[in-house]
Amino acid sequence: MGDTGLRFGILGSGSRGNAALIESGATTLMLDAGFSARETVLRLARLNRSGEQISAILITHEHGDHCRGVVSCARQFDVPVWMTAGSLSAMKDDVRDSLDIHLINPHEVFSIGDIEVQPFPVPHDAREPCQFVFSDGDTRLGFLTDTGSITTHIEAMLNGCEALVLECNHDLGMLRDGPYSPSLKARVGGNLGHLDNATTARLLRRLESSCIRHIVAAHLSETNNTPELARAALARAFDCDPSFIEVADQEVGLPFRNISEAWV
Ligand SMILES: [Zn+2]
Ligand SMILES: [Zn+2]
Questions:
Q1: What distance in angstroms lies between residue 63's CA and the mean position of ligand 2's atoms?
Q2: SS3 at position 99
Q3: pTM of the prediction?
């Protein structure tokens, strides 16, 4: 692992908990805090990191799989937490009362240490959900999970990124024929739910492809998708070998990747 340039690793991805690390220079951001502090520390250790190295926590939205550990992690690591006013309004009082909160305007770029953060709003069934593009001024990393449908704004934000972490929540056929109740199927598959493999593949096809060096499928459903299906859908869209597409899973996440190093 190099120590220069923008790099990222994932502590875990899926409906049982989400957290990722984005680093540049001396700055380490934790994106979402979907695991308890205890669990987060164990997962950080797998990536050779400790809580003391975290500079700040960013929260995408208030669903438990993204903020279950926000209070315990922010207190234990003694770091500020960034989120939208809508997300904050949906959380328990102890978040507002006990943490150092910085509010995000989801249309305004901001910086934390060496990393520039461009938030953007996404359609999802939460108060004010947003996703992010991270940059060190040289390369860009786009994250997109927990999104029910693709907007032209999302497309514009992700265009030109060298690395993409994209939700592949479900396969449409597996969701349709699977065990979920009709109401849960409607929620997950709806415009404010989660992205399916084919929709994410269509998005990928529309993005400028020549700059893309890393594609990671994330937030896969363990019931309504398989890593093979997600990989195959994105590989067809990007016209690459399926092995180029990595899958961030719930247990193992993803080891660190240096964005300036091509993954081939
Ligand atoms: Zn989620
Ligand atoms: Zn969500």
A1: 5
A2: coil
A3: 0.96
Q: Which residue has the tokens 């359609």?
A: 123
Can you give the pLDDT at residue 3? 55
Please name which ligand lies nearest the alpha carbon of 65: 1
Please state, as a whole number, how many other Cβ atoms lie within 10 Å of the Cβ of residue 240. 15
Separation of CA 220 and ligand 1 centre (Å) = 10
Q: What is the pLDDT of residue 1?
A: 41
How far does residue 20's CA lie from ligand 1's centre (Å)? 13
Looking at residue 187, which CATH number applies to its domain? 3.60.15.10
Could you tell me if residue 88 is inside a domain? yes
Q: Can you say whether the dihedral through the CA atoms of 52, 56, 257, 47 is positive or negative? A: positive
pLDDT in tens, 62-104: 999 999 999 999 999 999 999 999 999 999 888 998 999 999 9
Domain count, the chain: 1
Could you tell me if residue 239 is inside a domain?
yes
93 Cα to the center of ligand 2, angstroms: 20
